[in-house]
Amino acid sequence: MAMTTYHPASALSLPRAAVLRPALTLLLFLILVLGLLYPLAVTGLAQLLLPAQANGSLLRDNHGRVIGSALIGQAFHSRGEFWSRPSATAGSAYNGGASGGSNLGPSNPALTKVVAERIAALRAAHPEQRGPVPLDLVTASASGLDPHISLAAALYQAPRVARELKRPLPQVEALIAAQREQGWFGNAQQARVNVLQLNLALRRLAAG
Amino acid sequence: MMTAFFWMLALFMLLLTLSVRPMGAWLAPLASGTLPGRWRAFDAALLRRLGLNDAGMGWRDYTLALLVFNVLGAVLLYALQRLQGDLPLNPAALGAVEAGSAFNTAVSFVSNTNWQGYAGETTMSYLTQMAGLAVQNFLSAATGIAVAFALIRGFARRESGDIGNFWADVLRIALYLLLPLSVVLALLLVSQGVLQNLSGYLGYTALAGHGQTLAMGPVASQEAIKMLGTNGGGFFNANSSHPFENPTELSNLLQMLAIFLIPAGLCHAFGRVVGDRRQGWAIYIAMSVLFVVAASAIAWFEAQGNPLLSALGADGGSGNLEGKDMRFGIAGSSLFAAVTTAASCGAVNAMHDSFTALGGLVPMLLMQLGEVVFGGVGSGLYGMLVFAVLAVFVAGLMVGRTPEYLGKKIEPFDMKMVALTILVTPLLVLAGTAVAVVVAPGLAGLANPGAHGFSEVLYAFSSAANNNGSAFAGLSANTPFYNAMLGIAMWFGRFAVIVPVLALAGSLAAKKRLTPTLGSMPTHDGLFIGLLIGSVLLVGALTYLPALALGPVVEHLAIWATH
């Protein structure tokens, strides 16, 4: 490499054309490699090696129709089903085409208002529960598509679901236990269940 | 809750520290320009085919090449967004992106900020995502790393007029470093459930009977470079909280590690190239100390929860869950928030706008420190090395000696460049915030009332000028006012820092390297690490404490005053 002396005031040594041409060549070449070859090659590999995951971890019913994704939450309103967390997605709750959170700040009166309404609604629907309401059932998730509720939130709803389906409570609680996902490092607060999977298990129980 | 957090933090730091040495060994030959033998022939042939070479450039030529390359990239990205409606790979039939938003997004991705005023799944076609946004994810990362390489060469070379060749640097960083890492990470992410397809959005009937849509797309390939290049621009609006971007606790850990992988490895590469590995470890330790303290603080504040909600009858023992997904919880969300704002990544797996007042202050402060706690790929190291020069300068003043760092005398020209580098971003942040909170179009964007609204604006300008890209996302920033203001902050926050850093590199490269004497201050020991941390904190605190007091601190006092 050339060892020239450094002159802070020295002018540019390159003519302008000597910059534009390599810039364009390099840019177009890298767009081709990184913008087309790379994503298409990864798509090919993913479709070959991991097609189920690459296409959305879809769940299908007995007729092969898509009923959802194991990773994406859904809204449930029936009293005989477990309810998901509140969702702040645009348009409607759990809109898989427009993810997002509420972005309400901790001191925002709109947050306390909506949480108070949700607590009142949950208390009315669960007269047998006297303790505090699980926080995840009254707060919106980040994605608006959170597939999980906490284990505590599932157990909170279990008496209502059992009553509605006319099933003994321990049977419903056993379903919850079977769906339980453990948090890393034994974090009890992160023990959770996938609501869609839990409700599917509930349907199988009701059908069988 | 805190126990789980500390275990996760310990695992994270262990894996990161184990990666430092191999990453440094990978990066060092790229930085010094001495590729291993078997690569040299391939490299030379490729450069020749493209009509390029790796002849050394002076800092002015290097700067010119960098600026032209980035301006061209921004123009092409703008054009692609405006024309996407007439181009292929657009199954959702999305039209042209609005001009102001397209300008903002082009600047955002070229400057490695990846601030997103738009919602991905309803705005950008697959072609724009792949050939536009993801390409700039690679190129802005390569640009940052190239500048770090130039500065490292400045310290390593003696009486030299060249700091490397920009074209060769970008090409090598993109193809020999970022591309292979991205392929591996993308496939690991797919294994966890991240999408990778070109299908149209999928309509289906949900279990409860209503119609539903699932967004699809080539997500994993973009997600991988979004993390490795500390870009942070999500494929979807909800970014890394979207289950199709970040489905499991393992994918969350992989994404966090990917963000720090190159910034941490660069510290070691720096030590190797300047011929004293302890210098690299000293920088790594200083960054790690700041990071561990900040991450723990966020987790602790988030674990305290929101007393206003507990008072209503919600279970206060679970921490603050508004804007968090259950698979990450307090631990995984807090650690991610610390990683993404310590590095100038800006991906989020939880909504920072809904963090507790002080839990949201810490990410803001991490950005305001200048993105030097690991920081962006390349930009974190060159930012921290600028602070190291400041630290030896301050120490030199105290004992009355000419300051030197790694045998390079630090002279007035160098200190001017250091001062410029350190002062540009605070000017953009504070002036921008001040303007936005006194004019109507600035105030119109606020989503939350009171002190929190001020925090939203302060966060936005801190994020833009420091090229982070995360947001207190309640702020409606897709307006002509914010698209223009934040676009300016991002552009100058990037390039008005890079130019003086390259000037510093040129000036350093031209100097002799003095051999250390008994009187030289060692720059690898605990004293220097403390001095470096002190310089970063002192500059950050003096600049931003008044503004932070008006936002998050006031909000915290208001929330807790009644309890």
TrEMBL record, chain A:
It is found in: Cell membrane. Keywords: ATP-binding, Cell membrane, Ion transport, Membrane, Nucleotide-binding, Potassium, Potassium transport, Transmembrane, Transmembrane helix, Transport. It is a single-pass membrane protein. InterPro entries: KdpC (IPR003820). Pfam families: KdpC. Belongs to the KdpC family. The system is composed of three essential subunits: KdpA, KdpB and KdpC. Part of the high-affinity ATP-driven potassium transport (or Kdp) system, which catalyzes the hydrolysis of ATP coupled with the electrogenic transport of potassium into the cytoplasm. This subunit acts as a catalytic chaperone that increases the ATP-binding affinity of the ATP-hydrolyzing subunit KdpB by the formation of a transient KdpB/KdpC/ATP ternary complex. HAMAP family: KdpC. This is Potassium-transporting ATPase KdpC subunit. It comes from Vogesella margarita. The lineage of its organism: Bacteria, Pseudomonadati, Pseudomonadota, Betaproteobacteria, Neisseriales. The gene is kdpC.
UniProtKB/TrEMBL annotation, chain B:
It is a multi-pass membrane protein. The chain crosses the membrane at residues 62-80, 92-110, 130-152, 173-195, 253-274, 281-301, 328-348, 355-374, 380-399, 420-444, 481-505, 526-547. The keyword Endoplasmic reticulum does not apply. Pfam families: KdpA. Keywords: Cell membrane, Ion transport, Membrane, Potassium, Potassium transport, Transmembrane, Transmembrane helix, Transport. InterPro entries: KdpA (IPR004623). It comes from the Bacteria. It is found in: Cell membrane. Belongs to the KdpA family. Part of the high-affinity ATP-driven potassium transport (or Kdp) system, which catalyzes the hydrolysis of ATP coupled with the electrogenic transport of potassium into the cytoplasm. This subunit binds the extracellular potassium ions and delivers the ions to the membrane domain of KdpB through an intramembrane tunnel. PANTHER family: POTASSIUM-TRANSPORTING ATPASE A CHAIN (PTHR30607), POTASSIUM-TRANSPORTING ATPASE POTASSIUM-BINDING SUBUNIT (PTHR30607:SF2). The system is composed of three essential subunits: KdpA, KdpB and KdpC. This is Potassium-transporting ATPase potassium-binding subunit. The lineage of its organism: Bacteria, Pseudomonadati, Pseudomonadota, Betaproteobacteria, Neisseriales.
